[in-house]
Amino acid sequence: MMIGVVNDFLEATLALQIQGPDSLSTNRAVIDTGYNGALTLPLSVIMALELNPLAARLVTLGDASQRVLDFYEAEVVWDDKRQTI
Questions:
Q1: How far apart are CA 33 and CA 36, in angstroms?
Q2: Containing domain of residue 12, as a range?
Q3: What phi, psi does 43 have (nearest 5°)?
Q4: Residues 6+ away with beta carbon under 8 Å from 85
Q5: How many domains does the structure of the chain reveal?
Q6: How confident is the model at residue 35 (pLDDT cuts 50, 70, 90)?
Q7: In DSSP terms, which residues pair with 24 in a beta bridge?
Q8: Element at 49 (helix H, strand E)
Q9: Nearest residue to 15 (alpha-carbon basis) of 28, 31, 25, 1
Q10: Residue 26: pLDDT above 80?
Q11: CA torsion through residues 48, 85, 62, 56, sign
């Protein structure tokens, strides 16, 4: 079971362990009720973990606009199991 907290902005958050090729970081993540298996990270975390880049993709945002975004590969510990995202 994963236990989170509600922050001052009334957002549900969890502490996630994010694994890069050679390093590990624990970050607090806001959980979106529309979770689709992806995790959005600040560029500073992506660079600090030296995540491997994947192909950029066209995505549709919540307001129906479309953008090309960069994607990276990482692993997270989710409910005591390591998962690639």
A1: 9
A2: 5-84
A3: -55, -35
A4: 37, 38, 39, 73, 74, 75, 76
A5: 1
A6: low
A7: 19
A8: helix 43-49
A9: 28
A10: yes
A11: positive
Global pTM value:
0.76
Place of tokens 């005591």: 80
**Does the pLDDT value for residue 27 go beyond 90?**
no
Contact between residue 40 and residue 28 where contact means Cβ atoms under 8 Å apart:
no
Q: Does residue 43 carry a pLDDT above 70?
A: yes
For 27, the token pair is: 């970050």
Residue type, 34: G
Looking at residue 18, its amino acid is: I
Matching residue, tokens 């979106």 = 32
Measured between alpha carbons, how far is 23 from 37 in angstroms, rounded to an integer? 21
**Which run of H or E residues covers position 68?**
strand 66-69
